[in-house]
């Protein structure tokens, strides 16, 4: 083999490697559009709800069909959210590396991708699960894309409160996938997540308040005093704990869930009250530690729903 032939082969190998790297990076960009980390949290609430509704293990096929349909629905909604908010994302440090900002995906491609995922999710759930679940998924997509992203987010400081309704829908979808209906237990689980959303998200908005202010998004921590935000966080946390405890008398849960609801609720309530006391003292930045509450809220929800999943299998 001559030196020229060797060089040609090396060049061919390099050129041959570029499309592969390009495909991988493109796939990563499209996956990023679906916001997989947020979807993980949604799935954490769906599967335990299915276990509770079934009083044990639903069929594996039903679990997979519901999870895939739920991922497609959430992914479609998140993609359309990024499409509509690409101007905001470009102004915020936290979101400046998203695919539509960097140009990894074009706006037109993202719009088509989001609509396709949303449409496929409805058909998937309708044909493989049931049409009640499909209708709830469509409702969740419309709530997130239209009600929250297009109407509320840029207009009101209560955007995350009412816009958070979309994030509550997976428990209704999970319950209906098993039973074909929605019960009072499912409604209360819906309310747990509804009241959980503000004390979960506002600490994040507090940390990135300069970003939101630069983007012109009126998140409550941007337009209101820290004491008002802390007071509303306490109110929503109290209502969240009340909703979680109101499930117990309905009789569909046992002692595992009961202990988790009381214990995790008390712990998270302590974190929120401690945060409010730090606000009252005038602490800011790292001393205020808003992300402690943010991460604590994720732990709370995880503990509560893991207990919900275990509960049907544990009897005294």
Brief characterization of the structure:
The chain folds into two domains: 33-168, UbiA prenyltransferase (Tetracycline Repressor, domain 2, Orthogonal Bundle), CATH 1.10.357.140; 183-316, Four Helix Bundle (Hemerythrin (Met), subunit A). 80% of the residues lie in helices and 0% in strands. It is built from 16 helices and no strands.
Shape verdict? flat
* Domains (count): 2
Q: What is the CATH class name of the largest domain?
A: Mainly Alpha
What letter string, H or E per element, gives the SSE order?
A: HHHHHHHHHHHHHHHH
What's the CATH architecture name of the largest domain?
Answer: Orthogonal Bundle
Characterization of the model:
It contains 16 helices and no strands. α2 packs antiparallel against α3 and α10 runs antiparallel to α16 (290-310). By secondary structure, it is an all-alpha fold. The protein has two domains: 33-168, Tetracycline Repressor, domain 2 (Orthogonal Bundle), CATH 1.10.357.140; 183-316, Four Helix Bundle (Hemerythrin (Met), subunit A) (Up-down Bundle).
Give a quick set of tags describing it.
316 residues; mainly alpha; Tetracycline Repressor, domain 2; Four Helix Bundle (Hemerythrin (Met), subunit A); 2 domains; 0% strand; Protoheme IX farnesyltransferase; transmembrane helix; UbiA_sf
